[in-house]
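Long-time lurker, finally posting.

We've been working with non-specific serine/threonine protein kinase (Lentilactobacillus parabuchneri) and I want a structural starting point before designing mutants. I don't trust myself to interpret raw outputs, so I'm hoping someone here can both generate the structure tokens and explain anything notable. Sequence follows.
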Amino acid sequence: MNKGYVLNGRYEIIGRLGEGGMADVYLAEDLILKRKVAVKLLRLDFRDNPKAKKRFQHEAMAATQLDNPHIVGIYDVDEVEGMQYLVMEYVDGEDLKKYIKDNFPIPYAEVVNIMEQICSAVSEAHRHNIIHRDLKPQNILVDKNGYIKITDFGISRAGSEDTMTQTRSIIGSIHYLSPEQIKGEMATARSDIYSLGIILYEILTGKVPFNGDTAVSIAIKHSQTPMPSVRDFDPRIPQAMENVILKATAKNPNDRYQSVNELAADLNTSLDKSRANEAKFTVPSQNTGVDEKTRVMPFTPLTDQGQTASADAQKRETPAGQTKKGKKPDKKRRRRKWFIIGGIAGLLVLILAIVLVASATGKTTVPVISGTLESEAEAKIQDADLTVGSVKYESSDKIDRHRVISSSPKEETKVKKGTKVNLVVSSGPRKVKVDNYVGQNYDAVKQKLEDEGFKVRKRNAPSSSFKPSKILQQDFQSGARLNPAKQTLTFVVSTGIKQITLKDLTGMTKAQVVSYSNKVEINPTFDYVYSDDQPKGRVVRQSPNANQSIQQGGNVAVWISRGPKKDDSDQLKSFNVRITIPYLQAESASASSASSLDPSGEASDDSQDDQSGSNENVVLIYLKDHDHSLSNVYKQMVITKDTAVTLPFKLTSKEVGKYKVVRDGKTIMRDNNVTYDSH
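Top reply, 14 upvotes:
Generated this for you. Predicted structure of non-specific serine/threonine protein kinase:
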């Protein structure tokens, strides 16, 4: 779909955002509401595929049932000229996979905040009996303010819909699938909990726990290999936080958290000092599922022999006293039979009499309608010869929206026919509209929101623009209506301008300056000068000077010695060497891997995601000149096409420079004779 195309006379395409296994996603402008939206369009090659169309429609139905600020909203669903499309909330940011890559390592407190937002969304889905079944970082979006949104409910299923369960095919991304899904069993809420544990592992380590050459090998590891320890990767990770991963990813679903809320509550306290000496989590049950082999139980149709055998079994189970065929029942049994028939007939007469009396007196009974939909309750009331009276709506955390809370007169009460029955109907959980609190005093806002029933959390951050105690950011959208009982609001609050008193950097190496700068959060800039006072590689001077104060995040200029200045014939000369690094397209084996896992022959929508990074080349450039050593990496980059790079050299007439280029661990370019005259 080209830029400028107007879909259905309303959505003007701005550009492509991405593409998946079944659909393409575009950025568009809603010409009526004047807002940016994301348009998900079913691909041409899937428009005649009933499975694809059903999955596409299911995503819309699933998402529209959910009301949570951390779930991407669905604005519109339609079909035009044979094109099925969804119009969704546009999230200006990146997916969690890229966020982890760009921001790793992520502070533990931020990890907890990210997971809490994800858990909030998944809990809302589970409350509506919707299992996502494909939770992964690629389906989790992070906006510019770090606000989380979950998308892609295309393969989600209602927990009660047994007919939707695919017992012989695997749907989802293999790196995040639970063991029971890999075996082809029905996904449950605890399957999503397993995926959440894998996601938490990846946020903490920057990688997935199980990898392999094929999808099959990864699947076997999920089913049989114990979860690797995140503390082996980073011993600083609290044991309590690792325990959350271990419990969430237990092989047996019964050993996992019973709900997402339980996981979130445990993770929320994992950084508390009270849990500092917590023991490592071990699976309480004996059957962990680690040694269980994946197997398919055979299905044996019922044959004629099987029917005969069943009949024979029934014969064998006949009680000794039972009358055999052809023999007359004794007199005692005959009397008992007529006694039972007479009793039943009498009971029927009694019931008929009660009905006739009730009819004659004009009485009826208020039906049982609590918990039913409002429309169903009204139908039951009318069927009972009663009239629907007033309908009052009240918020409820226990009764779903549009369902009856109570009635007046009460259920099963005898009343005259035609009596009005008043209803109290649930309007869903109590929702409170929240505003934009940026710039306001945190304590006042906190008190106001806590009075409404919200839980409020604070994160401190220095700021030169906001006075202390003023709110810098909030993790929810202004104007949203939120449920106080289930929503924790997080604010970033200003601590004001933090002043740093600079220490004397003179004589330090560059590495020591960088280490000190990271610790006190200042930004150093480096230049090189000749010096007779400091040896080569040591700091000559700084600006601002030692013991002067600067703001946290401020800049410090640092001059590093080149050593004593030599005669004019040995003066440094600067020049550039321009090279082009060729891009190497990686071979992909994902197609064969996926097909080997899915006996149905239906490939996963997200096979490309599972091989994330396979189309990128990691390049390391080493450079040697007057200021650089060949033993240190001069530049690291990731390329997806042939890329031109300019290498700056500083050499005297007597010096020889060098460079080498390493692509994906292999040296592809080298020059050991770089001089000013040669370039």
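Before you design anything, note these points.
Confidence is low (pLDDT under 50) at residues 157-171, 286-327, 588-614.
The CA atoms of residues 182 and 219 lie 6 Å apart.
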